Amino acid sequence: MSRRIIIRNNYFFYIIAWLFLGHICGLLLSVLLFNQINPYYYKQLNKITQEIGEIERGDCIFIQSCFFYRMKEWMLLILFSGLASYFIMYFIYFFFKGAMGGMLLGILLQNFGIKGIGFGLVFYFPQEIFYLFIEVVTVLFMIARKNEKCKVTWKRCSMMGGISIGIFISLLCILLGAYLEGTVNTSLIKWFIQQYNM
After folding, report:
1. Is residue 67 part of a domain?
2. Domain around 88
3. How far apart are CA 35 and CA 28, in angstroms?
4. How far apart are CA 171 and CA 175, in angstroms?
5. pTM above 0.70, yes or no
6. Which of helix, strand or coil describes residue 155?
7. Helix or strand or coil: residue 129?
8. In 1-85, where does DSSP find H-type helix?
9. CA–CA separation, 117 vs 135, rounded Å?
10. Does residue 44 sit within a domain?
11. Do the domain assignments include residue 5?
12. pLDDT tens-digit readout, 4-52
């Protein structure tokens, strides 16, 4: 199968910019609203430290919940593509995603100092690499089709077959991300908590 996609506008840059802007706003909000939101985040952090062992022993249940949660996010992106204001919805989605990460990082930084930065990165590694990859590719593809700015050449399979392969690869990446979140990520969080007595 040979496939060539031409995208004239740099939408990838927009997505990265939205995430970055969301992170900055999230950091600022974590400082301005620290007294209001810190109790909630601290409570959640304590819950994670107490349940991390149970999550490790029950990987399958946790992996399943991660998979279905990320599936909902992915389907939400596809749903946005059908709206007239899809570009604005994409902005809201990635800005909000960045803001949540920025608030978490800001709270951890204010509570634990430099260690909080490492702890915040551990929360997202390595599963977020796969999740973000699928989200970006999905958005770029949907925008290209929406704006009719892509040129696709099919030689060995039909268009429906190509879309089916794309969906299969997306689901596979989401499943892999969920598996890493339920195994590698939980082990990293547990190690970080024990290593730095958090």
Report:
1. yes
2. 11-196
3. 13
4. 6
5. yes
6. coil
7. helix
8. 11-32, 34-57, 59-80
9. 24
10. yes
11. no
12. 444 445 778 888 898 999 999 998 988 888 888 888 877 777 777 666 6
Handedness of CA 86, 90, 95, 101 (dihedral sign): positive
Question: d(Cα 11, Cα 3) in Å, to the nearest integer?
Answer: 19
* Per-residue tokens: 166: 């794309």
Task: Please state, in angstroms and rounded to a whole number, the distance separating the CA atoms of residues 21 and 16.
Answer: 9
Contact 149, 7 (CB under 8 A): yes
Identity of residue 185: N
| Spatial separation of the C-alpha atoms in residues 95 and 77, rounded to whole Å | 13
Q: Does any domain span residue 6?
A: no
- Written as six digits, the tokens of 67 are 């998979």
Measured distance CA(111)–CA(198) in Å, rounded: 10
Looking at residue 10, its pLDDT comes to 77
Number of Cβ atoms within 10 Å of the Cβ of 166: 14
The residue to which tokens 């399943």 are assigned: 64
138 HSE (CA, 13 A, CB side): 27
Burial class (CB in 10 A: 0-12, 13-18, 19+), 6: exposed
What's the total number of domains in the chain?
1
